[in-house]
């Protein structure tokens, strides 16, 4: 080998050191030949071959980056966790989807209107605001001494009655006036009266045969039309209710006792059946059709008649009314 060849080899080696990848730092095995450790020129690797050889792969990350022995196990755990999460989400989605699909099936198989009607709670409808009830009132009358208070007409718990003296002996007449004060204006629709002394409680006091019975009354209301209602009781042994011809807005009522009768021993079952009655004080101003003709001179003698004076029956001295009611409601 000539000197020029040696020079060219050194130049190529230097170029490979500057521009080629850094050779591996791993120690190379020492090569000896038969000539006492000198490398044979023919066995030397040319510089060009060394330059063209692929770089030696690095098998170590160095002391600053140690290899993690559990890296594979961690990756496996992550994969398993992700798979479990996907499975849970899929199950929840499936259950939710089934729930939504079941609702239309129930709605299609059961009629909606009957189901709501059967499951709705039963409610009691409130009474209408204009339902008629008994209206409270205050009653007063100017009856002679020996009479009871007219306020007894409103008593529903005790056995009492409004008893009015018809006048001095020999001058017993009808035509007494009863004053009703409702306290405020009401829309009235009906009136009710219980003529005679009738017990108000089961087994209570009953003085039916001790006083005369109111047979006909007249109600005068203080409304704008001054409505007047005449009521026939038929001497019934119980309440008699008469509707008004129309609703009356009134706060006061004047009641006139037009006619009374001796109490029949057997009261008629129907109030429409008129009993025999004695002509009252105002009968002279009424037509003959308004009052029934007397059928028994002894039972229905006129006031001051000799027959009544001779008998002197205490029943003719007074009349009684057990109760009176006015039905209506407050104006809306």
Mean of all residue-level pLDDT scores = 72
Structural class: alpha+beta
CATH topology of the domain at 136-284 and 302-329: Jelly Rolls
Uncertain parts: 37-45, 102-110, 113-129, 272-310
Text of the CATH class of the domain at 136-284 and 302-329: Mainly Beta
Q: In sequence order, what are the helices and strands, one letter per element? A: HHHHEEEEEEEHE
- State the helical fraction: 10-25%
Describe the structure.
The protein has 332 residues and is an alpha+beta fold. Among the domains are: 1-15 and 32-54, no CATH class; 136-284 and 302-329, Sandwich (Jelly Rolls), CATH 2.60.120.260. Helix content is 23%, strand content 23%. The protein contains five helices and eight strands; from the N terminus they run H-H-H-H-E-E-E-E-E-E-E-H-E. The protein has helices at residues 3-19, 47-52, 71-109, 112-119, 306-311; strands at residues 133-134, 138-141, 162-165, 177-195, 212-221, 228-232, 240-261, 318-329. Strands 1, 2, 3, 4, 5, 6, 7 and 8 form an eight-stranded mixed β-sheet that branches. The chain is rod-shaped, with a radius of gyration of 62 Å.
Entry keywords:
332 residues; alpha+beta; Jelly Rolls; eight-stranded mixed beta sheet; 8 strands; rod-shaped
Outline of the structure:
The protein has 332 residues and is α+β, with helices and mostly antiparallel strands.
């Amino acid at each position: 080998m000539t000197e020029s060849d040696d020079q060219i080899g050194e130049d190529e080696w230097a170029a490979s050191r500057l521009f080629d990848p850094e050779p591996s730092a791993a120690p190379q095995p020492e090569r000896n030949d038969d000539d006492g450790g000198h490398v044979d020129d023919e066995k030397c690797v040319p510089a060009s071959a060394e330059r063209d050889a692929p770089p030696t792969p690095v098998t170590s990350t160095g002391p600053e980056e140690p290899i993690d022995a559990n890296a594979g196990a961690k990756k496996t755990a992550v994969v398993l966790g992700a798979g479990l999460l996907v499975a849970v989400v899929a199950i929840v989605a499936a259950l939710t989807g089934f729930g939504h699909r079941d609702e239309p099936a129930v709605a299609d198989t059961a009629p909606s209107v009957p189901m709501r009607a059967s499951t709705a709670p039963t409610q009691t409808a409130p009474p209408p605001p204009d339902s008629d009830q008994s209206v409270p009132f205050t009653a007063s009358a100017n009856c002679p001494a020996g009479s009871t208070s007219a306020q007894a007409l409103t008593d529903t718990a005790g056995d009492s009655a409004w008893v009015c003296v018809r006048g001095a002996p020999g001058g017993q007449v009808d035509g007494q006036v009863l004053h009703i004060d409702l306290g405020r204006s009401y829309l009235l629709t009906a009136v009710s009266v219980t003529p005679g002394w009738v017990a108000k409680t089961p087994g209570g006091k009953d003085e039916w045969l001790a006083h005369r019975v109111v047979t006909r009354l007249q109600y005068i209301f203080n409304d704008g039309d001054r409505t007047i209602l005449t009521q026939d009781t038929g001497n019934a042994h119980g309440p008699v209710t008469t509707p008004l011809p129309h609703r009356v807005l009134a706060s006061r009522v004047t009641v006139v006792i037009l006619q009374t009768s001796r109490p029949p021993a057997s009261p008629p079952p129907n109030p429409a059946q008129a009993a025999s009655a004695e002509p009252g004080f105002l009968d002279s101003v009424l037509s003959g059709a308004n009052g029934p003709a007397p059928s028994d001179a002894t039972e229905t003698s006129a006031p001051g008649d000799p027959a009544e004076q001779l008998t002197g029956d205490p029943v003719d001295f007074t009349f009684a009314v057990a109760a009176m009611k006015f039905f209506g409601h407050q104006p809306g």
